Amino acid sequence: MRLVEHEAIILDREANQVHQLNATASLVWQRCDGQHTAVQIAEALTGAFHVDLETARAAVVTALRRFAELGLLRPGRI
Amino acid sequence: MDTLTLNVLNQVIRVHCAHPMVESLLSMAYGAMRGDPGGADLEYTVRGDASPERFHVVRPDGESIAAPDGGALLALFDADVAVALQRRRPDLYFLHAAVLVRDDAAVLLVARSGGGKSTLCWALTHYGFRYASDELGPVDLTRLHVHPYPRTLMVKRDPPASFPMPNGVRTSGGIHVPTHVMPGGLVRAPSAIVAVFFLHHVPDAPGPSVRRLSTAESATRLYANALNPLAHGGEGIDGAVRIAARPCFELVTAELAPTCALVATTLATISWGRRR
After folding, report:
1. B14 to each of A33, B19, B56, B102, B226, how far by Cα in Å?
2. Alpha-carbon distance values, B267 to A63, B95, B134, B167, B271 (Å)
């Protein structure tokens, strides 16, 4: 992964794809490390983007769902 | 047997043409790259039959490949030379892109095959742009200069009547425009990259539009169009990010004339910013 101006570029060599994440998704991705729960990630979003917790939770769910669809997550990572 | 010697990216490519038809076809396509005879870095032999039309290309490694017609020959030769050049010049970051130059500043047009890159390239040569390439953009990442690759421009279908094409050579691949008829002339030396446009053709768009892209999105799109990213550091991402530091835009293309005008206007904005 490469972080460029708060946006992540992810190279998936197995799938031969490259992905660009916006700032929100990038923050979620950086915390997909097996150490953070979805709630904790949402709380981080509220501080970074000045949104309420409900909005942040929805963003986290959307991001995680998309990561899973793209095959970017390992089982049990979150 | 005629011999065609090309000099591109400081590589000497010698092509032995075993039939006048072969020499005529390859000279048409690559004549702007002619160079002085000298020690060859790459050597090909191309044999041809007129009736029925068919060709055989003997590659530098000795392998022989058949092509059923002139269009297939040019496509095969082009692909092989492109790969060979990437191997011999791994210092350059090769992009699948058209390249035009105006006021000594290079503009890259990036689009998927069939995305209108060559047609827009042809149209822009009528707006003061000089032609550098319609397919290959070899970038010097240190200086952010792009080298010319003036193979003949090829479009898949006739452009609109507002941009008439002179009597080009038609093959199964498309319509090849001789480089000597380019309205703005040719580029002969590397040029500094000033902007990148990622083309997106929307058939029912009311008009062309342009949107500035973030560095990350631009780098991602460039990476997807890089031909030899793994020859460079950071699995090629570093190179894409470096190029993406230049202003990059998504260009929704529509009718050619207003699209060309929008490109020119957008570049003028960039130039104005650089002079301040």
Report:
1. 54, 15, 16, 31, 27
2. 36, 21, 19, 31, 6
Q: Is the pTM of this model over 0.80?
A: yes
Confidence grade of residue A78 (pLDDT, cut at 50, 70, 90) = very low
Q: In sequence order, what are the residues at sequence separation of 6 or more whose Cβ sits closer than 8 angstroms to the Cβ of residue B256? A: B119, B120, B123, B159, B160, B162, B163
Q: Output the DSSP codes for B2-61.
A: EEEEEEETTEEEEEEESSHHHHHHHHHHHGGGB------SEEEEEEEETTTTEEEEE-TT
pLDDT (mean) for B247-252: 97
CB pairs under 8 A between A and B: 38
Task: Name residues 11-30 of chain A within 8 A of B (Cβ).
Answer: 11, 13, 18-21
Mean pLDDT for chain B overall: 92
What is the C-alpha end-to-end distance of chain A, expressed in Å? Answer: 18
